[in-house]
Design goal:
The chain has one domain: Coproporphyrinogen III oxidase, aerobic (oxygen-dependent coproporphyrinogen oxidase, 3-Layer(aba) Sandwich). It is built from nine helices and nine strands. Strands 1-2-3-4-5-6-9 form a seven-stranded antiparallel β-sheet. Strands 7-8 form a two-stranded antiparallel sheet. The longest helix is centred in the last third of the chain and has 26 residues. The radius of gyration is 19 Å and the shape is globular. The protein has about 300 residues and is an alpha+beta fold.
């Protein structure tokens, strides 16, 4: 286990939760401390049914032990002994005008191999270019401060490819940045990049919430948000590496599935009206673009 990463992720959870409570202005996070049979444990923090956030989860974990041999073969390293520590968060706002956001940062070892991974992505329902470009420009700036090992263009492409629902041939959202199996030969430099990214999360997302949280929304917009949340469920249960890793290593199920939205609507063969904002989401916004370099004239 990387002792500095362990301390950093635990303290990052504190800072992010404090900022989410501030922008929400309603309920405080509930904390559950848990232990994992086989080694380790964590702190799960959940905020539900509050002013801005219908459900927000920010988890810290530190687990170790033995993993299933068949699953271990999909990871770098050798043997079945592993350690993993990190922070993972998913924030589901009540308003359909505020995007859902996900981020995680982690450090893992298997045998003699060790690496960092993580990233962040934005899932809007009624996207605004100002919000999308702000999110991407935040992560591009972080990568540029660590250009010797963090290539934003590649991490942006990797994010678009990772958060793609193959069975729908559709993106989950407007992306962000994503990296994995990084830093085995440059752990200190990679840890510096991960810390910079971790500190940037609040500035990447909270200004978006501040701009949108007082705006009025309709019942029809809320229905569309609930319908689109179904895509979040599908991705997290079918493709998400963190979900799969947690379940395959006997993690705490309640904490692993905290990422799922509280209210989801499945509508058979839903077809948005041609030319509507709902149609524009899939016709325009969910097509990968160079968001960090776009201006208002590009829409």
């Amino acid at each position: 286990m990387h002792p500095l990463a362990l301390t950093y992720f635990r303290e990052l959870q504190d800072r992010i939760c404090a900022n989410i409570e501030r922008v929400d202005g309603g309920t405080r996070f509930r904390e559950d401390s848990w232990e994992r049979e086989g080694g380790g444990g964590g702190r799960s923090r959940i905020l539900e049914n509050s002013t801005v956030f219908e459900k927000a989860g920010v988890n810290f974990s530190e687990v170790f032990g033995e993993m299933d041999a068949a699953f271990a073969n999909h990871l770098p390293g050798e043997g079945t002994s592993f350690t993993a520590t990190g922070i993972s968060l998913v924030l589901h706002p009540r308003s359909p005008l505020i995007p859902t956001v996900h981020a995680n940062f982690r450090f893992l070892t298997r045998g003699s191999a060790s690496w960092f991974g993580g990233g962040a992505d934005l899932t809007p329902y009624y996207p605004v270019l100002e919000d999308v470009t702000h999110f991407h420009r935040t992560w591009k700036a972080v990568c540029e401060r660590h250009a010797e090992l963090a290539n934003y263009d590649k991490m942006k492409r990797d994010c678009d490819e990772y958060f793609h629902l193959k069975h729908r041939n559709e993106a989950r959202g407007v992306g962000g940045f994503f990296f994995d199996y990084t830093g085995a030969d440059r752990l200190d430099a990679t840890f510096a990049f991960v810390k910079d990214a971790g500190e940037a999360f609040v500035s990447s997302y909270v200004p978006i919430v501040e701009r949108r949280k007082s705006l009025a929304w309709t019942a029809e917009q809320r229905l569309f948000q609930e319908y689109r949340r179904g895509r979040y469920v599908e991705f997290n249960l079918v493709y998400d590496r963190g979900t799969i890793f947690g379940l395959k290593t006997n993690g705490r199920t309640e904490s692993i599935l905290m990422s799922l939205p509280p209210v989801v609507r499945y509508i058979y063969d839903y077809q948005p009206a041609v030319g509507s904002p709902e149609a524009a989401l899939t016709d325009y916004w969910l097509k990968p673009k160079d968001w960090a370099n776009m201006g208002l004239s590009d829409v």
